[in-house]
Specification:
194 residues; mainly alpha; two-stranded antiparallel ribbon; 6 helices; 6% strand
Length: 194
């Protein structure tokens, strides 16, 4: 089934009309809906605060705002990072992976999002890899996951396969990361249509 908005294959249907959308179009729609929802929550909180200050009464609970973790100048919401890992991070790769996870959650691709999160965290805490290897694997994963949001015909499939091969080779000596990769790799191949 094709996406209603572009030539990609659809991953789900939206609304009562069951409009088929691809991952990229669905992410765009969900991102827009989320931003509208966040803006309305902030507006409601502002109204409550204004009433409180005018009349000196409490108007009740506020909507919780999304809290982010600041790591070396970057915001990370999904990937757990401890202080000892900050030195090895290329914060732009972690931030990109975090945004990918956020987008995948928003389009209900929970399994893929969870496995990218688990794999990223496993690499960050992997004792059997050097800091350079950890950074290399995360950078490769960042490049691969960016391709999820490209049109099928624009994906760099040879590059993706090479990077996946490189990840497999690098982590071949690490049991925990390898176990997660063996789940994540087929999911990525399915979504990237490799």
């Amino acid at each position: 089934m094709k996406c209603n908005q572009c030539d990609n294959n659809a991953v789900g249907e939206v609304g009562p009309q069951k409009i088929p959308l691809c991952l990229q179009c669905w992410a765009l729609l969900q991102g827009t809906v989320q931003k509208q929802s966040d803006a309305l929550r902030e507006e409601m909180n502002y109204i409550h605060d204004s009433i409180d200050s005018m009349f000196g009464i409490s108007t009740g609970a506020r909507y919780p705002l999304k809290r982010s973790i600041l790591v070396a100048g970057s915001t990370v919401n999904h990937i757990a990072i401890n202080d000892s890992q900050i030195g090895i991070l290329n914060t732009s790769n972690i931030q990109n992976l975090d945004q990918t996870i956020d987008t995948l959650y928003s389009v209900s691709q929970i399994e893929l999002a969870e496995n990218i999160k688990k794999f990223s965290e496993a690499i960050l805490s992997e004792q059997g890899l050097s800091k350079e290897q950890q950074s290399e694997v995360l950078e490769s994963l960042d490049v691969i996951t960016k391709e999820l949001f490209q049109k099928s015909e624009n994906r760099k499939k040879t590059v993706i396969k090479t990077l996946m091969s490189g990840i497999s080779e690098t982590i071949s000596v690490t049991a925990n990361s390898l176990t997660i990769w063996q789940i994540l790799q087929p999911l990525l191949q399915k979504f990237l249509q490799l």
